[in-house]
Specification:
CATH architecture: Orthogonal Bundle
Strand order of the largest sheet: 1-4
Number of domains: 1
Largest sheet: 2 strands, antiparallel
CATH class: Mainly Alpha
Low-confidence stretches: none
Distance between the termini: 48 Å
Shape: flat
Order of helices and strands: HHHEEEEHH
Structural class: mainly alpha
Number of strands: 4
Number of helices: 5
Mean pLDDT: 89
Strand content: 5-15%
Radius of gyration: 20 Å
CATH superfamily: Cytochrome c-like domain
CATH topology: Cytochrome Bc1 Complex, Chain D, domain 2
Length: 155
């Protein structure tokens, strides 16, 4: 009670946080005029690079395994096993190791929400495509990466 008299607003998790979550559920994704009702490109509106990028997204690049249309997420946890790429070491007395499982991020409106990945370590969509190219060992050509980024910018 004393904290409230001093102006401290303690969140009541039972109501305020729940109300915030319900409000966020009301928000829609930004418009994506090139997408059809199934979440895939309308060929009449998309350019050649975007169409090639969509083919990669659902094929060779393996993005759709976790980011399924139309919302481009599966709301599940996935472990990319990034610990393969570095040696564990102490940071501030704690052992730094792999990321562990992370929740699939919805890709609708992704162009408007940098930085990327769960911790913001990737600053651009190009960085993000390169990260997954390395982690998933996709061996994408430079032109394929550019096409994939073109598709992501449409979502």
């Amino acid at each position: 009670m004393i904290a409230q008299k001093k102006g401290v607003n303690i969140l009541d998790r039972g109501s305020q946080v729940h109300a915030m979550a319900e409000f966020q559920e009301l928000l829609d994704f930004p418009p994506a005029p090139k997408l059809g009702v199934d979440g895939k490109l309308n060929p009449k509106r998309a350019n050649a690079a975007e169409l090639r990028g969509q083919q990669l997204f659902f094929g060779k690049a393996r993005c759709a395994e976790c980011h399924q249309a139309p919302y481009y997420t599966d709301n599940l946890m996935h472990n990319l096993q990034t610990e393969r790429f570095f040696k564990p070491h102490l940071v501030n007395g704690m052992m730094a190791s792999g990321d562990g499982p992370i929740k699939t991020f919805p890709l609708r409106g992704v162009k408007d929400s940098p930085p990327y990945l769960h911790d913001g370590r990737l600053l651009t969509l190009e960085d993000t495509v390169e990260f997954f190219n390395l982690v998933l060992e996709l061996q994408l050509a430079q032109s394929e990466k550019a096409d994939l980024v073109a598709f992501l910018r449409v979502l």
